Amino acid sequence: xxxPLEHDYIGLSSEAVPSMEGSERSSSGGLNLNLxxxxxxxxxxxxxxxxxxxxxxxxxxxxxxxxxKRGFSDAIDGGSGKWVLSxxxxxEAELGKGGNLFxxxxxxxxxxxxxxxxNNQNTGLGSPVLxxxxxxxxxPKPLQEKKPLLSAPAAKAQVVGWPPIRSFRKNSMATHSxxxxxDAEGKSGSGCLYVKVSMDGAPYLRKVDLKTYGxxxxxxxxxxxxxxxxTIGQCSSHGVPSRDGLNESRLMDLLSGSEYVLTxxxxxxxxxxxxxxxxxxxxxxxxxxxxxxxxxxxxxAPRAMEKCKNRN
Amino acid sequence: xxxxxxxxxxxxxSPIKQDIHPIDFSLPTEPMNHKRKNxxxxxDSDEPTTQLSSxxxxxxxxxxxxxxxxxKDRNSVSLVCKDxxxxxxxxxxxxFIGNCYSVSPEILTRRFPNIRxxxxxxxxxxSDFDLVPPKWGAYVHSWLLxxxxxxxxxxxxxxxxxxxxDESLKFLxxxxxNFKALSLLSCDGFSTDGLASITTHCKxxxxxxxxxxxxxxxxxxxxxxxxxxxMSLEVLNFAxxxxxxxxxxxxxxxxxxxxxxxxxxNENITFKQLHRLLVLAPDLRELGxxxxxxxxxxxxxxxxKSAFNNCKNLNILSGFYEVTSIFLxxxxxxxxxxxxxxxxxxxxxxxxxxxxxIHCPLLQRLWVLDSVEDEGLEAVGSNCPLLEELRVFPASDxxxxxxxxxxxxxxxxxxxxxCKKLHYVLYFCRQMxxxxxxxxxxxxxxxxxxxxxxxxxxxxxxxxxEPMDEAFGAVVKTCTKLRRLAVSGLLTDLAFEYIGKYAxxxxxxxxxxxxxxxRGMECVLKGCPKLRKLEIRDCPFGxxxxxxxxxxxxxxxxxxxxxxxxxxxxxxxxxxEMPRLNxxxxxxxxxxxxxxxxxxxxxxxxxxRKDAPPFVLTL
Lengths: 312, 619
What we know:
The structure holds 2 protein chains of 2 kinds. By secondary structure, chain A is α+β, with helices and mostly antiparallel strands. Chain A contains 9 helices and 5 strands. In chain A, strand 3 and strand 4 (271-273) form a beta hairpin. Chain A is globular and about 35 Å long. Chain B has a domain at 1-92: Monooxygenase (Up-down Bundle), CATH 1.20.1280. The radius of gyration of chain B is 26 Å and the shape is globular. The longest helix of chain B has 12 residues, at 298-309. Chain A: Residues 1-32 are annotated as: Disordered.
C-alpha cells in the first residue's frame, strides 16, 4: 500500500508543509534523502532536534532507514505532537517508484528493484513515522505545542510478524498495559482501557485508550484523525498514491458519511455497530474496534438492535 | 553379527536426530510375518533366517532396544542391519514427527506398529507470527482416522501448530479407550466444545495441557464435564483459556485427583480460590497462578503464605497475570526449590524481581518481561548462579506503545557475569553492541541456543554504528556447541560467512532483515553440515542463493523463505531438480517470473500434499 504524499494532518501548521515539500521534492537519491529527512522539522521555527535515544549517527548512508525514521519522529515530536505521515523522505518520486512503504506482509512488494543494500525503498517498515494522536496517559495530549522528545522513542510502522512473538503473547500485551513508574502500587492495566483499532485497507493497527474519551463524538473524531491518511484516495494494497491533498472536510465526509462505519467486537465476540448503546456500556463491553467498509457492515445493525433488546 | 552388504549400499543420509529419517522408508517395511504372528515370545524359535544373523533371539533384542528412548539412538540403531531395524520398529512406542507432511500416517503405521505416543508438528514456525495464511493445513484429522485402526491403544498425542477441529477432538475422545495425555500447543481450529468431548469421554485421562492456542473460547463448561468419579488427572493446564470455569467443579476435581502434579489455572482464578486449591494439593510440582490483583488482608496474606509454605515439592511457578507487589512475598517460601520461574505475563519492576530472586537460589530457568529492565537482570546475575536458561520478552508492543522500557546490552552482560552455566537465551532488546556480545559469549561459552532479537530491524551497533556481524561472529566462534541461532540487527554477508565457517553444530537458524547479497545464504548452506531448519524473512536472497546448494535441502527438515527475492522460476527449477522435496509457494500472484512471496521447502516421503488450499502452489 502506498501512502499519499503530502499527507498533512488536519490542523497541522501549514507552514510545515511547504518546508517538507521544499526539502523533499528535490531529493531523489537515497543518501540525499536521508540527510534531508533528518533535517526535516515540522515544529515551530526554532525548535531543535532532540538527542536521539540511542545515539544513532546520521551519516551512515544507504542503511539508514531507522535513522530516517528517527529523524521524522524527532521532527514530529518537536512539532505538534500530531503525526504526519510522509514517505521515506517524503518525496513523491519515491512513492511513485512504487516503494511499498508498508506492506501487510512486511517488507515485500513489486517495487523491490534495486540493489541488495537495504535502502529506503525496499523496506516496508518504519520509514514513515506514525505517532499516535492519542498517547498513553503519561504523555501529553496532542497539542500544537511541542513536547520534549527525550523520553519517548520513535513510533514506528508495524511490520507483520515482528518482533517474533506469538500472537497469544502479543494479545496479552495488548490487554495488559505495562506498568509505568507513576503507578506506585504496581498494578498493571488499571486506569487504562486499551483497545486495538483496525481499519479495512490500512496496513497496521493502532491502539486507543477508551478511558480518555467521554463520548462517542470524542472517540469518533480521534479515530478520524488517526486514520485519516488511509482514507485519502482509495487505499488498496497496490494502489497508486492519491494526488489529492488532504482536505479536512473530505475526511469528515468519509467517516461520517457512508463509506466507512465504525464497529466493535464485544465481550461475546460479536461485531456491533458503534453508537447503539450508552457510552459506559460500550466501554465496558468493547474489546476491539474496526473501521469497516460500509458495504461489509450490512447485517450488523439488526443484530445490534436484537442484542440490545435481549440485554434489556 | 551379519551385516548384509545390501544394507551398506542402501541410500541414506546420516541419521537425523529428531525425525524419522524419511529415506529409511525405502527399506522393506513389511513385517517379517513369520516372526511376528505370535506375539508371545517363543524361545524355541528356529527360523532359519535368524539363526545366522544374530546371537540374540529377536525378542531379547527388542527388549533391549525398548529401553532406548532417544530418537537419535533409535534412528542409528535402525540403520545397523535389517534385524535391528525390525527390532527397533517393533519396540518403538513413541514417535516424533517434526513435519506432518514429511510422512503419511499410512507409512508411519506400517513401519511402527506399536506406537502409544505420537508427537506431531505441523505448520512452519513462522505461522506463529502470522506469516502463514489461515487454513494452510496441518490437519490432524487424517492422522486420527488412521490411528483409530492402527493405534487403537494410543495413549498420548502432542500436537504443535496443527489444525484441530472439535470433530477431531470428539473422534479422538471416542476412538481410543486408553487415551491418557493430550497436549495442544499453538494449535488452532477448535473450541472449548472440543475440550468438553475430551473431558467427558476420556476415562483414563492423566494429562490435559492446553497452551497458547488459537481457540474459540466459548465457555468453561468443559471442566465440569469430568465425571464425578474421575480421579486420574496428573496434569491440568488451562492457563491460556479465558472463560470462567466452575470453581466448585475445579475444587472437587483437584481434591479427587490425588496424583495431580501440575496445575495451571487461568487468570480468572482469584487468589482466594488459589488458596483453596493449594490446600487441597500441596504436593504440586508445577503451579500456574491466576490473577493476583486483589488486595490482601494481613490474615489472607499469612494464610496464603502458609499454604505456599506447605508446597514442598514446587519446582515450577508460572501464571502471574497481573500481580501486585503485595502479593509477591507470599510466594517466597515456595521459591526455595524453584527451578523454573515463568514471569513472562507479569510486568514486574526491577525491585520486585530482585526481591523475589533472592529467594530462588536454585533457579535454572527464568522467563521475564523486559519491564524488569537492566537492573532486574543485574539481580538475576547476582542471585541465580545455577541459571541455565533466560528468556526476556518485550512487555509492550514496540510498534504501538510509547513507553520506553526494556533491556539493553547491560542487562545481558550482567547475567553473563553471574550465570556461568547459561546456555539458552532468548533476548528481546532495543539496543546491542558487538563488544557486549563478544564479552557475553566469553563469559558463557556453552551456549546451545542463542536467540537475540534486536527489535528494530536492521539496527546497527548503537555505539559504533557498525553492523552486528562481529557479534554473531563471536557467538559462532566461541560457542562450539551452538545448535540454535537467531540473528538480528544490521548484518552483512560477513555475519553469514562466519556462521557458515564456524557453526558446525548448528541445526536451526532464523534470519530476518539481514544480509547484503546471495552470498550470505550461500555461505550458510555450504557451511553448516548439521543444518536442519532454515527460516528466512525479508532478506535480499534470491534464486542464486536458493539454488546454490539445493541438494542440501534433502538433509534438512525444511526451508522457509518469505519476503526475499526468489522467483517462481527459481522455485520451479528447484522442484524439478529435487523430486523428493515438496516445493510450495504461498502466492498471491501466479505468473512466471513473479516473486515467490513465501516459499516453503521440505523433504517428504509422502509426496506432494493432497490437502493443499488454493493459495499453496506445489511446484
